[in-house]
């Protein structure tokens, strides 16, 4: 066994899951154990451990925790949370939410609202390459639709999260795509072709399911809306589609909403400041949760927990199909442990490449497996950034959204079927642009 690997490094995660999930199961209500509190308890518990064969002082362990919690990606996520809250608050205060919801209710048939949200989210996330930006833009609209129609809010938010993970998985510019193709040495378009053929059935079934689930109290009627008031959403979507950074995208949305709100008398300058603060306040818990999760993962990595995962998941691989299952399991478990699908791909990628060479797995297929499974679980873990953001804007528990992240569940199923039945069939690397689903 690698001297760096140690099961004890995973015990804080087990403790957290047992505390959070156990309390919810025993009491019948997952809100009875606040997510932040469970994570703080788990972090305190983690400080009791030591790296295998070493003695680390409490001060050093706190430093490790603090540096990991303050990692640039985590801080960026915190700022995105705060900006997303500010945008939602200002969009609500100046009438953008009600206007765009009423426009949707006027244009779309009642049974096409959820498929419409899903397709818009897929397009947006694919164009901008970030699930967080997509959730920031669409969740306020989804909340409004749920309030107007009576469609369950968890279902609407699960639809938004699923659509966001579509682009996170497939976009040419997403972090996960870049990580997957770089660790496996393949071209973006080749990985996209292999990946898309695997998830296409999941997209189709999701749209069909959402059509049947789009039931509510919406009546066929013309609702009152203002095209001027929806400009902040148009600005966000357009700026995202042309590839603007997610923070700038949210800044454009906030700025345009402020200008229109002031011009149309929705609020004055002093009230605008209060509206912005209110929205950021809604997201404060989530921002702290992101930092605590980062610190906890840093301690688990220091103790050898992630190395233990790497070792155990791949130790029993004997066949090509077993190697593919091992790669899928490895990246999934690391994502559950780290709550970051890009980090999980970067961590699992080198070992996945070794397994691919040993068992003659096409690297395009390996890259697809890494990206599909990491993105799927990222859309399902209730303490991950995507569900935290959606739940924060919707003011519900993230655990309520999990059962309704239909697309995330389906891409796991079709990912497993692709491994079991060796689909899609990839032609030789000499003709690597030709892919087929034929046996």
- The gyration radius over C-alpha positions equals 22 Å
Q: What's the structural domain tally?
A: 2
The order of strands across the largest sheet is 1-2
Average pLDDT rating = 86
Shape: globular
Low-confidence stretches: 430-439
Biggest sheet features? 2 strands, antiparallel
Count of individual helical segments: 21
Q: Structural class of the secondary elements?
A: mainly alpha
| N-to-C SSE string, H for helix and E for strand | HHHHHHHHHHHHHHHHHHHHHEE
How far apart are the first and last residues' alpha carbons, in Å?
40 Å
Number of strands: 2
**Residues in β-strands, percent:** under 5%
Helix % is over 70%
Keywords: Antiport, Cell membrane, Membrane, Transmembrane, Transmembrane helix, Transport
Domain Na+/H+ antiporter NhaC-like C-terminal: 24-209, 219-417
Protein name: Na+/H+ antiporter NhaC family protein
Membrane topology: Multi-pass membrane protein
Produce a short descriptive summary.
Helix content is 72%, strand content 1%. It is mainly alpha-helical and 439 residues long. Keywords: Antiport, Cell membrane, Membrane, Transmembrane, Transmembrane helix, Transport.
């Amino acid at each position: 066994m690698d001297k760096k690997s140690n099961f004890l490094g995973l015990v804080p995660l087990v403790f957290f899951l047992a505390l959070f999930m156990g309390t919810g199961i025993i009491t019948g209500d997952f809100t009875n154990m606040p997510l932040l509190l469970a994570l703080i308890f788990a972090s305190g518990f983690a400080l009791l451990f030591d790296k295998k064969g070493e003695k680390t002082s409490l001060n050093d362990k706190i430093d490790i925790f603090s540096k990991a919690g303050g990692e640039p990606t985590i801080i960026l996520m915190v700022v995105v949370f705060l900006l997303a809250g500010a945008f939602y608050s200002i969009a609500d205060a100046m009438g953008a939410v009600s206007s765009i919801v009423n426009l949707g209710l006027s244009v779309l048939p009642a049974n096409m609202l959820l498929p419409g949200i899903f397709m818009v989210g897929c397009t947006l996330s694919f164009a901008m390459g970030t699930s967080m930006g997509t959730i920031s833009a669409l969740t306020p609209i989804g909340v409004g639709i749920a309030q107007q129609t009576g469609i369950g809010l968890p279902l609407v938010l699960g639809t938004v999260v699923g659509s966001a993970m579509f682009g996170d998985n497939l976009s040419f510019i997403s972090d996960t795509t870049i990580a997957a193709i770089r660790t496996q040495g393949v071209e973006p378009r080749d990985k996209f072709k292999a990946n898309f053929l695997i998830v296409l059935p999941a997209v189709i079934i999701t749209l069909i399911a959402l059509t049947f689930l789009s039931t509510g109290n919406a009546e066929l009627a013309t609702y009152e809306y203002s095209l001027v008031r929806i400009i902040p959403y148009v600005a966000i979507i357009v700026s995202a589609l042309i590839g603007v950074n997610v923070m700038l995208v949210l800044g454009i949305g906030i700025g345009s909403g402020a200008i229109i709100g002031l011009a149309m008398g929705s609020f004055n300058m002093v009230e605008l400041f209060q509206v912005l603060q209110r929205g950021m306040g809604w997201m404060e818990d989530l921002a702290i949760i992101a930092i605590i999760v980062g610190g906890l993962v840093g301690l688990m990595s220091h103790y050898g927990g992630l190395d233990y995962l790497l070792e155990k998941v791949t130790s029993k691989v004997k066949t090509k199909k077993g190697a593919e299952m091992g790669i899928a399991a490895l990246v999934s478990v690391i994502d559950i442990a780290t709550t970051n699908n890009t980090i999980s791909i970067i961590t699992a990628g080198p070992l996945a490449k070794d397994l691919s060479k040993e068992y003659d797995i096409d690297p395009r297929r390996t890259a697809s497996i890494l990206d599909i499974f990491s993105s799927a679980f990222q859309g399902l873990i209730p303490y991950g950034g995507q569900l935290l953001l959606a739940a924060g804007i919707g003011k519900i528990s993230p655990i309520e959204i999990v059962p309704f992240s239909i697309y995330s569940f389906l891409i796991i199923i079709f990912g497993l079927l692709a491994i079991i039945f060796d689909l899609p069939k990839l032609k030789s690397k000499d003709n690597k642009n030709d892919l087929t689903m034929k046996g």
